Structure formats: C-alpha cells, structure tokens
C-alpha cells in the first residue's frame, strides 16, 4: 500500500466498518475474547509462576553433622559451602535450634515429648542449604555427598552400617521423590501455558481471516469495477488490510479495558479469599501484557487480512 493511498485506505476502512457494522462488531468481539483470554492467561501464568517459584525456593538440602565433629571443621566446611556455585544461602542449625523447630511441629504434645527426653537432645546439627537454581537440587546433593570436607564431619546415623557411601547419602536429604514430582509438574504447567497462548493466537488469526474473507466475497462486484478502471492490487488491498487492523486493534483495546477492570475489581476480592497466595503482579507486567496484546492484535490484523486477500481476492 503506497503512502499516497494511506488516507484513502483509512477512510474506506471506517466506511466499510460502519456500513457492515454487524459483521465488523462480530469480528471485534471474537478478537476481543481471544485476546482477553490470552491476556488473562498471561497474567494467570505470572501468578502461577510466582507461586511455583515460592514453592521451588522452599526446596532446600539438609546435611546432618556428627556431634563429634569439631567446631573448626564445621566452620571450615560452611565456608566451603558458601563458596560453591549455585549456593544462595547456608544456614547452620544447632542442636538447640533443631529441637526447637521439632517442638514447634508437634505443638500440643511438645511438653510431653520434651519431658520424655529427660533433658537429652538426640537431634544432630545440620546445614540448611538454599540454592540459586532449585531445579539443580539433585546435582548439588550429589556434590555434597562426594565432598571430602563433608565426609569428614558427616553424622554417623547408623553405626552398624559399614558402607560409608550409604551412611553419607542417608545424611543428605532433600525429599527426592517430592522434589522430582514438583519440578515435573511445574514443567508441564509452563509448557501448557505456552501452548495455550499459541493456540488462542491461532484462533484469533483464523477468525479475522474468515471475517475479511466474507467482506471480500460480499464486495466482489465493487472490486471487479475498481480493477476494470485500472486500480492497482495495492490500492484495492489497502482498505481491507486497514479494516482488519482496525478490527484487531479495537478488540485489543477492549480486552485491555476489561483486564483493567479485572485487575481493580476481581483480583482484590480473590486475594481476600485466598490469603495464602500472593496476587501481587508488578505494574510493568501489566503494561508489558497490554503492549503485547496491542502488538499481537495489529499483527493478527495484518497477516489475517493479507492471507485472506491472497487466497480469496481474485482480481
């Protein structure tokens, strides 16, 4: 479409839009629904990923230390742990801290349990290790098991076990099965998010393609006359492509408006009912989503119209 035809294309696009307002309105609503669902799913994915990230951040390695290990060796190994790649934080848990944490988990029976211990504390010291990338927890656990510094201070959980490797492995724990299932589930969720967004984009593209195709079919006679009087293919295509972009852009703007209502009215009420989950999404995420919807709408309008013209406009 030549620049000199731009004004004509816009004028004709608006004229056709309002003259065939029922068809145009249907296209706008269809695109609005598709883009609204895409936007809603993007924001929902951010919330889910945030929740998943919080759960993943709670994945830690617990490495138990022998009561007989010297404080100097323990401190040296803590320094070594803190220098390791992928280690975010290393917390030393003393025997007293371990007993206090254990007591808090048994709440109602805490006094009876503590009195039954008769002043003894059977719980070992340990390191609680947080990682930068929790998905690498298994590799980190194996690294700790093989580390000579850790083997020097490892807790001897079962004196009857002659296999030192088995004894070391018993004292490096991270909930292997649960962690494996967690990361498998989060992987599925992230893949499903990408697939669904792509599918909804394709659906919106198909709808605008069909709408433009119907518009072309209804105006074949007008197009034939324009062709007979010498109008170029670009001159004829301009209004159709502009009309497709206009429909997609309006659909995108409507979807942004409804998402803003959703953000201000619906999310606060949901957050009140589900207090354990954070629904705080930074405004830059919303702005990026809104910008993406506008850009996606324009792209859908351009390509949907162009393909419909190529396939169905016979001039």
If you had to describe this structure to a student in words, what would you say it looks like?
The chain is of the alpha+beta class and 315 residues long. It folds into 2 domains: 3-55 and 181-312, no CATH class; 60-173, 2-Layer Sandwich (Alpha-Beta Plaits), CATH 3.30.70. It has helices spanning 6-19, 21-57, 71-83, 95-105, 110-116, 137-146, 148-153, 164-170, 176-218, 220-228, 233-273, 283-312; strands spanning 60-65, 87-93, 125-131, 172-173. The longest helix is centred in the middle third of the chain and has 43 residues, at 176-218. Residues 157-162 have low confidence and may be disordered.
Write the layout of secondary structure elements.
Elements: H1 6-19, H2 21-57, E1 60-65, H3 71-83, E2 87-93, H4 95-105, H5 110-116, E3 125-131, H6 137-146, H7 148-153, H8 164-170, E4 172-173, H9 176-218, H10 220-228, H11 233-273, H12 283-312
Antiparallel strand pairs: 1-3, 1-4, 2-3
Helix pairs in contact: 1-2, 1-11, 2-9, 2-11, 2-12, 9-11, 9-12, 11-12
Q: What structural class should be given to the helix and strand makeup?
A: alpha+beta
Query: Total domains, how many?
Result: 2
Radius of gyration: 32 Å
What is the percent of helical residues? over 70%
Number of helices: 12
Order of helices and strands: HHEHEHHEHHHEHHHH
* Overall body shape: elongated
- Report the uncertain regions: 157-162
Number of beta-strand segments? 4
What share of the residues does DSSP label as strand, in percent? 5-15%
How is the largest sheet built, in terms of strand order? 2-3-1-4
Mean pLDDT equals 76
Distance between the termini: 16 Å
The largest sheet, given as strand count, sense and whether it forms a barrel, is: 4 strands, antiparallel
């Amino acid at each position: 479409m030549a620049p000199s035809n731009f004004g004509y294309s816009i004028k004709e696009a608006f004229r056709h839009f309002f003259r065939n307002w029922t068809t145009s309105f249907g296209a706008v609503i269809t695109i609005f629904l598709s883009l609204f669902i895409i936007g809603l799913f993007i924001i929902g994915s951010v919330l889910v990923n945030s929740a998943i990230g919080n759960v993943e951040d709670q994945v830690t390695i617990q490495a138990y230390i022998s009561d007989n290990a010297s404080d100097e060796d323990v401190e040296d190994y803590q320094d070594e742990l803190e220098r390791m790649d992928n280690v975010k934080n290393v917390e030393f848990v003393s025997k007293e801290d371990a007993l206090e944490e254990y007591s808090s988990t048994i709440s109602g029976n805490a006094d009876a349990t503590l009195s039954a211990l008769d002043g003894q504390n059977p719980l070992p010291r340990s390191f609680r290790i947080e990682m930068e990338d929790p998905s690498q927890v298994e590799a980190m656990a194996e690294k700790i098991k093989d580390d000579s510094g850790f083997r020097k201070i490892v807790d001897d959980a079962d004196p009857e076990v002659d296999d030192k490797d088995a004894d070391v492995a018993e004292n490096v724990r991270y909930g292997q099965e649960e962690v494996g299932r967690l990361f498998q589930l989060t992987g599925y969720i992230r893949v499903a998010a990408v697939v669904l967004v792509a599918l909804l984009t394709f659906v919106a593209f198909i709808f605008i393609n069909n709408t433009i195709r119907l518009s072309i079919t209804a105006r074949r006679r007008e197009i034939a006359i324009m062709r007979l009087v010498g109008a170029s293919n670009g001159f004829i295509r301009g209004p159709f492509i502009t009309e497709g972009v206009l429909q997609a852009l309006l659909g995108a703007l409507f979807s942004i408006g409804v998402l803003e209502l959703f953000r201000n009215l619906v999310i606060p009420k949901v957050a009140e009912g589900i207090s354990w989950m954070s629904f705080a999404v930074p405004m830059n995420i919303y702005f990026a989503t809104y910008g993406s919807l506008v850009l996606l709408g324009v792209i859908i309008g351009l390509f949907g119209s162009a393909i419909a013209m190529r396939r169905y406009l016979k001039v």
